[in-house]
Design brief:
- This protein has three domains: about 10-80, Winged helix-like DNA-binding domain superfamily/Winged helix DNA-binding domain (Arc Repressor Mutant, subunit A); about 80-195 and about 375-390, 2-Layer Sandwich (Nucleotidyltransferase, domain 5); about 210-370, ATPase, nucleotide binding domain (Nucleotidyltransferase, domain 5).
- The chain contains 14 helices and 14 strands.
- The protein has helices at about 15-20, 30-40, 45-55, 120-135, 170-180, 190-205, 265-270, 275-280, 290-300, 300-325, 335-340, 345-355, 360, 375-390, and strands at about 60-65, 70-80, 85-90, 95-100, 105-110, 140-145, 150, 155-160, 185-190, 210-215, 220-225, 230, 330-335, 365-370.
- Pfam families: ROK (PF00480).
- GO terms for molecular function: kinase activity.
């Protein structure tokens, strides 16, 4: 990869061009008259800006008849293939890297092994090598990364992560900028990225989803909150860290196991993937790691199903409190455990409907993630596309 800025992106710094191009982000097909009506710009201004974007290769134009009648009008669309975006959704024990077009649509994706506890140098080396394979020539217009811990947004600084050894205070966004000078860069919490992806997918399907709780249950446990159409990150980027709140295990457990964060009896210490592996071994089930446990779960092993259902109940008690506080219209459960059959989600439903306020659950829908393992990648690509096309 070269260090020069990607060709064409520099024009977005010219007055009005980013605003003009942003009109086309969601696949809109617009005539000059449409753009004038949406913006209030004078006809000569509209023409000048669209022509500049056409010359830069950022728009495509063709003549089409409206309703099949009259003189054909020139319709403009985003040339999504004019540039590439690179994203990496990094979890506690693996990552998905992807190359996307300028509209945020995934073109190629790869799953790579990594351990977040190995520290930023090792993890980011894996990200960079994955990106090199996906985009061997040229420079991306943007690069984005999600991490399983609190992120100061938009600076990209990792803040006191409970499970990310060696990451505290690491400036992940600066690392991306050093790799790709001139590109838009972004660093986000992994479950926030998932939430953005689910909202974007709903919009593509014609649904206006403004209040959502996404819970990721894999090796660890975390949540992403969308309220009133906005991601809730909190003052220090710690909003949604449901896995490290104290668990309500009344009627289920009497022990108070230590958590990886250093506290005891956290939700994650009962419901996280590493905790289920621990408990499975204690009950005689051979499971070297989370992958081994998931193999038993998918096969329907009764011990794995019982442990997962109980984990869902513990998680459901925590989610019930969140539902009463933020009143989402939908709760989506993702991550490798959340997507492995129905046992975890069933346990969550049981506790949420029993313990949340009736008004908050009257029309609440609880189910598995719609996008599955692609949610984080899609959310990163969607937000990065907005940054690029808005010229920020």
């Amino acid at each position: 990869m070269t260090s020069s800025p990607p060709p064409g992106r520099s024009v977005l710094g010219e007055p009005g061009l980013a605003a003009a191009l942003a009109l086309f982000q969601q696949g809109a097909a617009l005539s000059r008259a449409d753009v004038a009506a949406l913006t209030g710009w004078a006809r000569v201004t509209v023409t000048a800006r669209l022509e500049r974007l056409l010359d830069a290769g950022l728009l495509l134009a063709q003549e089409e008849r409206v309703n099949g009648r009259g003189r054909p009008a020139t319709i403009h669309r985003l040339n999504a293939s004019a540039g590439a975006l690179l994203v990496a959704d990094v979890g506690a024990s693996g990552m998905r890297v992807a190359r996307c077009d300028l509209a945020g649509m995934v073109e190629d994706v790869a799953e790579l092994d990594s351990e977040i506890a190995d520290g930023p140098d090792a993890v980011l080396a894996t990200v960079r090598e994955g990106w090199r394979r996906l985009l061997p020539d040229g420079e991306p217009w943007g690069a984005a990364l999600s991490l399983p811990g609190p992120i100061a947004y938009p600076s990209g600084l990792v803040v006191d992560p409970p499970i990310m050894t060696g990451w505290n205070g690491f400036d992940a966004r600066s690392a991306l900028s050093r790799w790709h000078p001139g590109a838009a860069t972004m660093v986000e919490n992994d479950v926030n990225a998932m939430a953005v992806g689910e909202v974007a997918a709903a919009a593509e399907g014609g649904r206006h989803l403004t209040d959502l709780l996404v819970v990721k249950v894999g090796t660890g446990v975390g949540a992403g909150i969308v309220s009133g159409g906005h991601v809730i990150r909190g003052a220090a980027g710690a909003a949604g860290d449901i896995g490290h709140t104290e668990a309500d295990v009344a009627g289920l457990r009497e022990d108070r196991p230590p958590c990886r964060c250093g506290k005891v009896a956290c939700v994650e210490a009962y419901a996280g993937g590493w905790a289920l592996v621990r408990d499975a071994r204690a009950r005689g089930l051979e499971a070297e790691d989370l992958g081994g446990f998931l193999t038993h779960l998918v096969a329907g092993h009764p011990v794995a199903r019982q442990l997962t259902a109980d984990a869902g109940r513990v998680l459901g008690s925590a989610i019930a409190t969140a539902v009463s506080l933020v009143n989402p219209e939908q709760v989506l459960v993702g991550g490798s455990l959340g997507l492995a059959g129905d046992a975890l989600v069933a346990g969550v439903r049981e506790r949420v409907y029993a313990r949340s306020l009736p008004l908050a659950t009257r029309s609440l829908r609880i189910g598995p993630s719609v996008l599955g393992h692609d949610a984080g990648v899609r959310g990163l690509a969607h937000e990065l596309s907005r940054q690029v096309l808005l010229g920020s």
